[in-house]
Amino acid sequence: MPRKAVNSNGADVVKAADKATERLAEVKASIGQVIYGLDEVVELSLAAILSGGHALLVGAPGLAKTRLVETIAIATGLDTKRIQFTPDLMPADILGSEVLEESEGGKRSFRFIPGPVFCRLLMADEINRASPRTQAALLQAMQEHHVTVAGERHDLPQPFHVLATQNPIEQEGTYPLPEAQLDRFLLRVDVPYPSREAERDILMATTGPNDAKATKVLSAKEILEMQALVRRLPVGEKVVEAILDLLRLARPDVSEEKDVQMGVSWGPGPRAGQALMLACRARALLQGRLAPSTEDVAALAEPVLKHRMALSFAARAEGMTLESLIGRLAAKAA
């Protein structure tokens, strides 16, 4: 007998999903007033937020990655702060620090001054330009939603999300993100060059006398309610099996694919399956559907797996790419 769907469905879920879909359409329309030709990038970024996770935006300079994050912050109603990562950035510049103060009575005590990480949407600009020590300062915040400074725990506001940007072509003076930190990102979102039509719209909209602005649509409370709703959406057994099949196919020690056995250095762990399950639900909600399908699994395979796998040197030398490999695996699994 097949197992039941992961979550039960009910009238309250249907009603909440319909309302959320309408509100999310308003969010996408608000973002669309400023960001042109990046509908898929916007959808993936919103899916990461609805899933309660973080996203890594990778693209060449000038593709509106920074503007996208700022616009998403406005439309979703999440207070945002920006950190420009540089080689001399220190962990205290992100987390905050304690300062020694003296009261009027002469009594001395330490006071914690929060860093920019204490916000709901943190933009980590060019995250790979900071040293590994500084990059590691974000690990606890991204995973546990609190930081520890001088032995004291400080909780971050809820919800808390990191949208980080990375430039793939300027590698001088950069520090590759360690696998442990890459795994903290729910999705890797590749930002492409715009189409000719989208670039025409960009030219006309950004070189005139008026600068388009996004409008606030959601609030932090609504985001939290939507995140709870995403976890209540039903997932059919066929989708669960497709996710499990994809994960097994991508792991070199258990995969039946020769390309994976010979060409993949390491494959995705269980966190990849969790990310795929949540992101599929979020994508379905964004598109006005009550439950995800295997098409969602195929569409999200690359954003979920690309930063959680690595090709061997020999495979890269033979011209193999992760994009093509993940595409083949997703087609077979879904």
From TrEMBL:
| Location of the ATPase AAA-3 domain | 54-187
Q: List residues of the ChlI/MoxR AAA lid domain.
A: 262-321
Entry-linked SUPFAM superfamilies: P-loop containing nucleoside triphosphate hydrolases
Q: Which InterPro entries match?
A: ATPase_AAA-3, CbbQ/NirQ/NorQ/GpvN, ChlI/MoxR_AAA_lid, P-loop_NTPase
- One Pfam family this sequence matches: AAA_lid_2
What PANTHER family does the entry give?
A: MAGNESIUM-CHELATASE SUBUNIT CHLD, MOXR FAMILY PROTEIN
Q: What is this protein called?
A: AAA family ATPase
